[in-house]
Input
Amino acid sequence: MQSYAWNEERPGALEIDLVQHDGGSALGHFAYTLSVVDVVTGYSRRRAVLGRGQAGVLDALRRIVEEWPYPVWAIHSDNGSEFINGHLQAFVRERGLQYTRSRPYQKNDNPHVEQKNRFLVREVVGYSRYDTPQDVTWLNTVYQWLDV
Output
């Protein structure tokens, strides 16, 4: 695995993470927000999905990357199964992207996206449980307004 360059100067290197909206109980099915941030510019986007299945998370990432205002050349994730899978590997390979990931249990390896999670997810939509398709639609509407 390649290491992550902390002193990166080229825009287009993205940190990605999922924020769960379980309302304090991880039982059952609920929404997640895929949070994406450029480590150089700080530009960020979000997209909510119902559950953290690999295909749904990848679809959200694909949509965000396709709408990114400048070329993306790298993606950095944590070690969640929603990111470490054949779907994501194929996605980065198809696009010629560099892929790195954090060391296990080291939130500080993803500081840019963790900061945005707090500031642009938790402080905006809170800690409530969102677990319906209507909730996901509402979250994505909020993010559309937020990401303008």
Notes: Strands lie at 13-21, 31-38, 44-50, 74-77, 98-101. DSSP finds four helices and five strands in the chain. Residues 45 and 115 are 13 Å apart (CA to CA).
